[in-house]
Amino acid sequence: MKYGFSDRVKYLKSSAVRDILKIINQGNIISFAGGLPEEKLFPVEAVDQAFHKAITTNKKALQYGETEGVPELRALLSERMIQKGLHRSPDDILITSGSQQAIDLFSRVMFNAGDVILTENPTYLAALQVFESYETNVVAVESDDDGMVLADLEEKIIKHKPKCIYVVPTYSNPTGKVWSLERRKKLLELANQYHIVIFEDDPYGELKFDEQEAQPSIASLDEDGLVLYTSTFSKTVVPAVRIGWIVGPHQIIRIMAQAKQASDLHTNSISQHALVHLLKEFDIDGHIQTIRKTYYERMLIMKRLLDSVDIEGLEYIVPKGGMFFWVKLPPHINTTTLLNEAVAAGVAFVPGAPFYVSDPEENTFRLNFTNSEPALIEEGMKRLVNVLESATVNV
Amino acid sequence: MKYGFSDRVKYLKSSAVRDILKIINQGNIISFAGGLPEEKLFPVEAVDQAFHKAITTNKKALQYGETEGVPELRALLSERMIQKGLHRSPDDILITSGSQQAIDLFSRVMFNAGDVILTENPTYLAALQVFESYETNVVAVESDDDGMVLADLEEKIIKHKPKCIYVVPTYSNPTGKVWSLERRKKLLELANQYHIVIFEDDPYGELKFDEQEAQPSIASLDEDGLVLYTSTFSKTVVPAVRIGWIVGPHQIIRIMAQAKQASDLHTNSISQHALVHLLKEFDIDGHIQTIRKTYYERMLIMKRLLDSVDIEGLEYIVPKGGMFFWVKLPPHINTTTLLNEAVAAGVAFVPGAPFYVSDPEENTFRLNFTNSEPALIEEGMKRLVNVLESATVNV
């Protein structure tokens, strides 16, 4: 039988990164390609205890639950966010199956085909996948080290009348950049002036290397109900728990909850109750400190080895947090081609091109420093440096 | 700020049943309204052990996982379905966040606005919610005790050229009906003749009261790649685990997996690994026997009390499995109005009207018999019988 699919299937793409990972995971390759947290840091004992309590304390916790999420978890998240300056009540929070679902549900209730979304360029690949699946028109705004370039942003707002500006302003995937406070404030001003919703995607905000240099979330600066803010436990507890949350104007959150009801009734409530126990009975902030310290050390090792590369025109941004280095090679190097040579040499990265909305810079790539132990970073970077140096000599 | 939503928001409705449940759960009311399994039967110790093993055996189980689902779980599900005559490989299975998500992802990849779906009438409310959110045109087919009426089905196929026929053929929600073998086969014949996909929603198939009378799934009779079949662990293990699966032609499953990747990356894998342990190390079939026996006893108690009602024109179907009685009152009784009186008397049901695609029969209601212990069924039904009898006398 021949099946007829919906038109939107045309816009569904498998993630280039996930496809690359499938190949890489098959061999004996040191991979800097994924975006995985370090498994050795998973708080297994605390997670085990938390699930044990969630399952055995109250049978109601195993029954069907509320679409909005377990009330105690929303209350705890509200408290944690208030501590960070983001003042929202539990009713303004929707628990989601990872922050990816927050992006999807938001898109479902906000966008018609042809609506314009402004984003950084490059930006988070799987957000682009979602936006494209709703047949929206994603337009890239120029960025520099401090965030979007304001003149270009305003020009594109006027030209395209966007419905939303999507940003990953803190230790972004893929570039590792942090927006300055000034740019955060100016973004809000422009959004307010032109009546545009901001979607602040913040999976990495907790992974800061220097508390002093950290910036407030854009949502915490918002006084006009402009910002939807999403984050996740994937990087601070474990990814498999698949719990994220989104917080913002109640009117939007309420409609997203209706969409979620149709979509999957509610998020896994065993995991939600386990997180309630974890937040109450485990020193999650101490645990996050350990993660930060470990990732910072690994970042420094990778930085030292990147600094040792003798290639004219190689540039990279030193991450102030998060999980990634973003590296730029001389313009004649195509990193998609280079990946084959790297894999042959036993090391992998992700080429930069798929992260671009438009005008991909084919000479860029992303390196993850969180999922390999120091000795593997040393060995993998040695292999990579060889590949890079011979590639630049060969041309 | 005034927010602009997508057009599809118009078609998003909150579930009438969930809204009723919120009110009912506030008082001291015996509720036959929900569709909840019995908490006292939850296999807490086995679930606790299974999660403990899933969390502590292998740190990889806590990392990001495959969109399609944990391979061992898909393999075990494939084996279980083959035992029931449904021959599909693990590659033809997608693990979902409950079977609700299977309906949503299927709709996402199959339906354009205006596409026609044929359904029974009444049918599963939350499937209608999903279909409507994709702006499809749902058309009701006449049914009798054995399933859809074939003459009406063929007439509507010819008239509406539907893309899909959605059915809940086994112990359906809300009517508790079972399709006969002949109707199952004829449905397949018509679907094959007119090239229509069948979506078989089977959350209740395991809850059969008489093994001898059980019917094979429509999917197990399908030789032409016509049927998508979905089921869930919500009724056999616990709802909070939010694990369902969908099985069918690989081409459709593969595209649904791409949609799932954009939607939520992958289903909670702690729960998936826990179910692998549960299926291997726990006598789930013995546990299902206990559930069947308990629900059968409760169904008989409710039946006895329904039989004691002295109202001319009261009709109901004796369920052969599942969780529900579907009751019809004399035509002049409106059960939505009656619910207020019932709640005042300390008992609740769900009015039938919201389950109808069109031409709602306002004199119908649904009773759940699985979530109340025998003494509560006795007491609740006494209250309900009083309400019913005085309502029919009053008019």
TrEMBL record, chains A, B:
Molecular function GO labels: transaminase activity
A matching Pfam family: Aminotran_1_2
UniProt cross-references to CDD domains, sorted A to Z: AAT_like
Domain annotation Aminotransferase class I/classII large: ranges: 41-384
Highest taxon of the lineage: Bacteria
Keyword Transferase set for record: yes
Co-factor requirement: pyridoxal 5'-phosphate
UniProt entry keywords in alphabetical sequence: Aminotransferase, Pyridoxal phosphate, Transferase
InterPro entries referenced in this protein's UniProt entry, alphabetically: Aminotransferase_I/II_large, Class-I_PLP-dep_aminotransf, PyrdxlP-dep_Trfase, PyrdxlP-dep_Trfase_major, PyrdxlP-dep_Trfase_small
Keyword NAD: no
SUPFAM superfamilies, per the entry: PLP-dependent transferases (SSF53383)
UniProt name for this protein: PLP-dependent aminotransferase family protein
